[in-house]
Amino acid sequence: MADKAGGILARMGTPADTDMSTDLLNIKSAVDGLGGGITLFDSENADRNLTTLVTVLTDTPDASNPTLCQGIVYLGDGAKDLDGTGGLFDIVVTVGGQTIQPSPQRVNFDTAARSAMRIPIFPVPANTEVIIKVLSSNGADSDVDVTAYLIGLL
């Protein structure tokens, strides 16, 4: 198992070799090389006002099959970053109109101007919409580049 993990890391590169927008694709490629894989169902990027609860991703991952999904939300891109003074961030995930618990999922950031929030794995029935929303407690986070990903796990 250690050899496989080392192989994945070698194929992914180091953080200096990649930017955040290609991380998931690199992970997918590395895992596919082991005979398994993940599916990138959706990615959405936009500048967002995080001072109110805002939708950062909406997707129906698989119309025919139930799946296990995980989300990740990157905040800041080097040009439009978080304020950098830290604070609490809430994530709300709904699947088919049902709120996934715990809700909100609360993350406390230090003073990073760029950060990422990982959403734990959750089941999604076939042909069911997933919505991910984010809220910052920091009033200065009113114009932040946000990229959200929804991946399916095998």
What are the defining features of this structure?
Jelly Rolls; 5-stranded antiparallel β-sheet; 2 helices; elongated; disordered N terminus
How would you portray this structure in words?
The chain has two helices and nine strands, in the order ααβββββββββ. The strands form two sheets. Strands 2, 4, 5, 6 and 8 form a five-stranded antiparallel beta sheet that branches. A four-stranded antiparallel beta sheet has the order 1-9-3-7, covered by helices on one side. Helix content is 16%, strand content 45%. The chain has helices spanning 2-12, 20-32, and strands spanning 38-48, 54-59, 67-75, 87-95, 98-99, 105-109, 115-124, 130-136, 144-153.
Q: How are the secondary structure elements laid out?
A:
Blueprint: H1 2-12, H2 20-32, E1 38-48, E2 54-59, E3 67-75, E4 87-95, E5 98-99, E6 105-109, E7 115-124, E8 130-136, E9 144-153
What is the count of DSSP helices, taking H or I runs of 4+ residues? 2
Shape, per Cα inertia axes: elongated
Class from helix and strand fractions: alpha+beta
CATH architecture name of the largest domain: Sandwich
Distance between the termini: 18 Å
Low-confidence stretches: 1-18
Instruction: Give the number of DSSP strands.
Output: 9
CATH class of the largest domain: Mainly Beta
What percentage of residues falls in helices of 4 or more residues?
A: 10-25%
How much strand content do the residues show?
A: 35-45%
Q: What is the helix/strand order?
A: HHEEEEEEEEE
Assembly state here? single chain
> How many strands, which pairing sense, and closed or not: the largest β-sheet?
5 strands, antiparallel
